[in-house]
Amino acid sequence: MAPESDVEIAVIGGGVVGCAVTLALARRGFPVALVEAELALGASGTNSGILHTAFDSIPGDLETELILASVARRDRLLEALAIPVLRCGALMRPFDDSQRAAVAAVPAVARRNGVTVVERDGGGLEIPAEAITDPVVYTLALAAEAERHGAGLRTRFRVESIKADGSGLRVGSASGATVRCSVAINCAGLEADSIARLRRDESFSIYPRKGEFLVFDPPSGVELNQILMPVHTKRTRGVLVFPTIDGKIVAGPTAVDLEDKRDWSVRASAREEIVSKAAALYPPLAAAQPVFAYAGLRPAGRGVNYLIGPAGTGSRLVNVAAVRSTGLSGSLGIAEHVTSIVGSLGVALAPEAPLEGGPVPQPDRPWWRRTAEYRASVAP
């Protein structure tokens, strides 16, 4: 007989948001299970690893508020869980008059968000608190800490049904395993719309926005010591150049809207698109040869962003969907927001237990290689 378990809350999805939500709930004493098909092998496994400060995010937006809430909790978590972090700061430089005007408007936004920025000669802007982590280690560390607080982790659990079961729900997997729960949290990333439809919620849809990256050894052996940012647009943050924890330099991402949620390939044209923009920020890359290339798929919502709340009136399914490239940066704030929503559904909130800490997960490959090679191995 396929295994079945009873918990108060089931979290669907093993990316950084799902792991953060599981940890937040477990720290409050909830019997919680994380059910996932691919732990840290989706969008979270191909994230840039940049921990944003919301210095240029729209004041008052939910996304902005949750990133800021995450920032307030981040240092304590990084230290307690011994997660690697490179506190390198970021530099944004304009290259023409229109960009100078755009950058000149950022400090006012940063002040409203409570983020320190430093204006430089020539119109440049430094953001000292921007940082880099290993997104896979970060995600796995959240999952490990959740387990230390009593959360269950059900791996290779690909959800194919969510059915009413008395006053709660029964979450079923393709293998026949089930989890019975009072509340289910949908943190399924690219498949969040598919999960919502299992409870007849068709209110939103998710499409993949492909971001391709190139990885370089430092040209001439000189390590990059700062994140280099282009001037952002409404659609994308553009191509960045940034260092990694393991001493590489990464340039990207592109932003290609797709329909196929399984297309993790890197286009032949991506290299030229990336290098032409990256070299403007960091000229040594113009003649450098990449040592690796990979693509990530961001779960973009059609007309929605940061869609977080119950699936419908009286629903015991909570959607956490359309969390795009800032999922890593906002994960801790998202988790606290979801915890408050769970409380509003009648689940009693216990005081938050302190972080315990433990061994730091050590993946067998760098994060920028791990997910890409996995995707290549399972490509249809």
How would you describe what is shown here?
The protein starts with a strand and ends with a helix. The model has no long low-confidence stretch (mean pLDDT 93). It has a six-stranded mixed beta sheet. Strands 15, 17, 18, 19 and 20 form a five-stranded antiparallel beta sheet that branches. It has a four-stranded mixed beta sheet with strand order 1-13-12-11, with no helix packed on it. The protein is of the alpha/beta class and 380 residues long. It is built from nine helices and 22 strands. The protein has a single domain (4-378), classed as FAD/NAD(P)-binding domain (3-Layer(bba) Sandwich), CATH 3.50.50. It is globular and about 65 Å long. A hairpin with a 2-residue loop joins strand 11 and strand 12 (168-173). Helix 1 runs parallel beside helix 5. 28% of the residues lie in helices and 24% in strands.
Query: How many strands, which pairing sense, and closed or not: the largest β-sheet?
Result: 6 strands, mixed
What CATH calls the topology is FAD/NAD(P)-binding domain
* Gap from first CA to last CA: 31 Å
| SS-based class | alpha/beta
Q: How many E-type strands?
A: 22
- The rough form would be described as globular
The CATH C-level class name: Alpha Beta
Instruction: Catalogue the unreliable spans.
Output: none
